[in-house]
Amino acid sequence: MFPVEIFELILDSLPLSTFTDDSGIHALLRCTETCSSLRNIVHQLASWRAHYHSRWKRNTQGRNDDKAEADWRLSYIERRISDNKVYDLLNDIVNATSAETKQEIAATIVVDYKYDPWDVIEHYSQAPLPPQLYSNPDAPPSPPDALARRFWAQQCLGALARRLGIMKWLPLTQLEAHDVTFQDVLVAFSTFFNADPSELALEFTALAQRCKSHLSSLGLFQGEDIPPSSIPDVCIKICAWMRSEGFDKPTPTHYHDLANHFPHRFLRTNRRCLPMSLVCIFVVIAQHLGLNASPVNFPSKVLAHISVPGTAGAKSSDLWIDVFDASTLCILDPNHDIPPMLVAAGLTAEQVHDVLGPAGPSDIFVRIVHNIHRSLALHPDSPEGEQSRFVAAYAVSSAIMLLHPVGPHVDSLLGFLTRFPLDLDAVLLRTIVPAIPEHSRMTAIRMINEHRLSERRGTKKRLLNENVKHYVGLCIRHKKYGYEGVILSWDPMCRMSESWQMRMQVNSLSRKASQPFYNVLTVGEMTRYVAEENIEPLRLTWPLAKRLVDSIRDLGMFFCDFDVPSDSESREGGMVMTAELRHKHPDEMAFCETLNWIHNSEDVDIMQSSGDH
């Protein structure tokens, strides 16, 4: 037998574990089945730690990097077991037949498993789509419910991100904000865009480290401590370095761009941003250098404050940094520069000392909410796009709900759940509602229950409405306006109000309101109510399927797969309904199969799960 060291060297050189390659782990497992000696060698391998960190990229809360090497194998096994449970729960979400069940399962993942499931959810959300969509024959096989997997995993990941973000805000409403940082408050807003808060924290740290290396190369300080006499020069150099990295004030026309408020944007693409964002970067860098830095909630624009320690028994002194206009004047004189700024903001010079103190995270939180709300109000047609505006408004409404928990704000939040269907339980009911006062909590719970009741729509029986010509999942083109889409549901006759029918001139149609009407999810994200006589059925082709996938963000909420007819078939085919949509239309599939409108549903089994856990 080879020496133990040789076996360890060979086994440590196996491929590290990832979500797409488990060959190294499978080889180790086979080794444990050969003999007890080899099993003991595998159990003691130093590479278990590397396998763990290769598979799970993000920092896992509550885990200790200094544990003994033997424990990393057990940690790896525990995490794989946990991932398998989360994977099964994600399958349960995809296959659930009601919105309420999906919400409850998602809350289990988000609340009970905390941050740990992020990697496995992200992997699940990347289920490969059919290779025909992108003319890639070498693509991996697609599971039959790939569309639904991707959609619901992204929704679950978003709910997890938003809960993590809001949890950072909760101490701000309970006067326990001493452990919440300026960075925490701002990063939480980006979680509404599914941004990983830990990843953004690492980006801030990396930025601060780069600046520290730059300042060290200039010889501004030696060792870890900056001499008090050098602090003003260091502050000026930080601002200069930020400008060299592109962090500067925006042009007046782009001052209120939504991207300027959110770290996942201003750290990466929109570096010309607001005073709030620039000061946040400055404070993070300064604190990384060991300086006592904080924001100042100054009326006209946020400033930065540095407390300079005294030397030889002298008192500490203060510096005020105008990061936004640092290229003009970086360090402000409180007696000469700041009073005119106060007057310009509508205050008196005597109030200078009331507004120059370091701001707490609660004050900054309120100001960020105001800033984003102002951008939304001033630029209703922002180039950021309607979805970004919707998400930003959701973030503001969630923050306002924590600050002012009254009925109208609950109703406002419920309105956002049309695009965030898994947030009702995990984010609203189990994160925000417990943090508000009891009298408001009872009102919120009542309104949430009423909302859930309104979502429990009845089923639609095809056999009772045989006059309905088209079916759910059929792709269509509007005969008059030319847009494409896919049918979500139908009514045997127009169910809209008389005022809507008058506005849409329904009586001008040849069959008026007595004909079937269809809810159609269209290319461009609109849901339209279309009369049967205006519907032109489309045969589903892969190019059409690609247009639907690329342009309809919520397609996977309703459909899980593609029924594309072969060239020899005369039927139209269509999108395959999810389990929830099939539950709402219980006999739709059977009725369509009888007429050979769609492929036999047994060959398109949406309940099937494929792939390793």
TrEMBL record:
Pfam families per the UniProt record, alphabetical = Transglut_core2, YccV-like
Which InterPro entries does the UniProt record give?
A: F-box-like_dom_sf (IPR036047), Hemimethylated_DNA-bd_dom (IPR011722), Hemimethylated_DNA-bd_sf (IPR036623), SirB1_N (IPR032698)
Pinpoint the Hemimethylated DNA-binding domain residues: 467-561
Q: Which GO terms describe its molecular function?
A: DNA binding
Known NCBIfam families for this protein?
Answer: yccV
- Could you tell me what this protein is called? Hemimethylated DNA-binding domain-containing protein
- Source species: Sistotremastrum suecicum HHB10207 ss-3
- Write the lineage as a comma-separated list: Eukaryota, Fungi, Dikarya, Basidiomycota, Agaricomycotina
